[in-house]
Amino acid sequence: MTEKDAGTLTVCFTGHRHMEREEALRLPALLDSVIRELYNRGARIFRAGGAQGFDTVAALKVLELREQLPGLRLELILPCRDQTAGWDEAGVRTYRYIYRNADASRFIFDRYIEGCMLERDRRLVAGSDICVAFCTRSRGGTAYTCACALRAGLELINLHERMRGQGSAQPFPSGMPGSGSEIR
Predict the structure, then answer these.
(1) Helix, strand, coil percent values for the chain (each to nearest 5)
(2) pTM of the predicted model, to two decimals?
(3) Phi, psi of 163 (to 5 degrees)
(4) CB–CB of 48/13 below 8 Å?
(5) Comparing C-alpha atoms, which of 58, 3, 1, 7 is closest to residue 29?
(6) What does the alpha-carbon distance between residue 80 and residue 86 come to, in Å, rounded to a whole number?
(7) What is the pLDDT of residues 110-128, one digit of tens each?
(8) Of 82, 103, 151, 158, which is most buried by a Cβ count within 10 Å?
(9) ∠ Cα 91 107 183 (to 5°)
(10) How far from 16 is each of 1, 82, 83, 115, CA to CA, in Å?
(11) Residue 1: closest CA among 145, 103, 154
C-alpha cells in the first residue's frame, strides 16, 4: 500500500453481496456522485475488499473515474488468495480485471481461514478516514464493518439511506451495533 500524503483522505467501501435489482441499477450513478464529492473534499485513496456485489461495483466505479480525477487510487485489501473459490466464471473474470487494474493490493492470508473476512474488514477501516457503505441490515459483515468504522471515529456514509431519500444524516438501522450514532 502507499503512504498517504498529509491532507489526503482515505475511503473504504463496505456493502452487501446481494441487493435488490432496483438498488443495484441505481448504485453506479450514486457511487459516481459520492466518489466525486469525496474527491473534492480531498479523498484520493479508495479501498475495497474484493467481495462480489457492492465491493465490485464500487471498485469498478473508482477504476472508471480514475481517468477523469487525477490522483485517484484504488487499493485492494483482500482476505485470501482463494477468495474466488466457488464463484461463477463471470465473477472471477471481473475480480481479476479489478485486481490487475488496482493501484495496489494486499492479501492478508494465503488461504481462506476462519475469520479472514472479518480481519479484512478491520484492515479496511484501519487507516481510513471515511467509510462508504451500502448497509440495509443490522447483522453480518457489512454491519460489523460499519460498527468498526463508527468505533474508530470514521465518517460513515450509508448509500442505502441516500437511496431512500432520507437526507444526509440518518440513524443506523435499529439494533445495529453502534445504533444511535449518526451517519451520512
Answers:
(1) 40, 20, 40
(2) 0.86
(3) -65, -35
(4) yes
(5) 58
(6) 14
(7) 999 999 999 999 999 999 9
(8) 158
(9) 75
(10) 25, 20, 16, 17
(11) 103
